[in-house]
Task: inverse folding
């Protein structure tokens, strides 16, 4: 048994060593294959996508010229590699009421489309107009054919507002998220004060009701919200309550709701005191 065990152990060691050698060979072959596959291009001789041997390399500016030999047909040919040329395109960047023209660098073969969002000056912008060299507006264009473009701030919007207080009106702007939705009649805060959105102008119409996304808003018309005394009663219950508070005609003993505890009320309004009915 002792000899058999020793023979089995030596066999396992030999197998392990053989396995290690095989694994190393496999790794080496894989490295050679990966290196060989790095130069696969179309051969000008046979027209196949084949591996090529680099015979010579010469620097040409930012690129290089490679003399290659096809591993399939043996054809020797030269391939030129050149990085795309960088060009500067004037783009008008609009952020609310402010606009500026900046020259933005891009590769000449870059493909541009309307509504594409790009980053510049730590902000995001959306392309809204593209013009070719003939001054014609297009939806898609290659950068080399682009003469100028316009873009709007995509992540934050500046919206014009008109604040009306009595007979005085003042103009200003507010900055909001692009996803914000405004609702006519709602209350917003500006400069530490509350304002009611009286109307929303979209550029084509002015609406007094409904909701409008911030992207479609051209101007907000803000009024001071009505005070407690200015609220006009519309229903019978509101009119009775307004009379109790002295807001409708003469009432010798008006009720101040602001000072009246919750739950307390005039029992006479609900049929009088139960002790008197007895």
Result:
């Amino acid at each position: 048994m002792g000899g058999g065990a020793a023979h089995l152990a030596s066999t396992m060691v030999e197998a392990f060593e053989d396995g290690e050698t095989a694994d190393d060979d496999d790794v080496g072959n894989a490295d050679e294959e990966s290196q060989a596959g790095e130069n696969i291009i179309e051969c000008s001789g046979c027209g196949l996508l084949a591996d090529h041997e680099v015979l010579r390399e010469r620097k040409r500016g930012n690129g290089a010229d490679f003399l290659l030999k096809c591993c399939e047909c043996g054809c020797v040919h030269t391939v030129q590699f050149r990085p795309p040329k960088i060009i500067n395109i004037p783009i008008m960047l609009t952020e609310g009421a402010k606009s500026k023209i900046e020259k933005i660098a891009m590769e000449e073969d870059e493909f541009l489309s309307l509504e594409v969002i790009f980053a510049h000056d730590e902000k995001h912008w959306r392309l809204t107009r593209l013009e070719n060299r003939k001054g014609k507006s297009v939806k898609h264009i290659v950068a080399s054919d682009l003469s100028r473009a316009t873009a709007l701030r995509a992540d934050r919007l500046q919206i014009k507002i008109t604040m009306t207080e009595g007979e005085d009106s003042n103009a200003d702007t507010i900055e909001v998220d692009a996803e914000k939705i405004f609702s006519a009649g709602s209350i917003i805060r500006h400069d530490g004060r509350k304002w009611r959105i009286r109307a929303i102008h979209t550029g084509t119409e002015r609406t007094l009701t409904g909701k409008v996304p911030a992207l479609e808003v051209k101007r907000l018309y803000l009024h001071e919200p009505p005070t407690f005394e200015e609220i006009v009663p519309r229903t019978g219950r509101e009119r009775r309550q307004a009379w109790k508070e002295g807001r409708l005609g003469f009432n010798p003993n008006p009720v101040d709701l602001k000072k009246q505890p919750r739950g307390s009320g005039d029992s006479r309004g609900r049929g009088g005191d139960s002790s008197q009915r007895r």
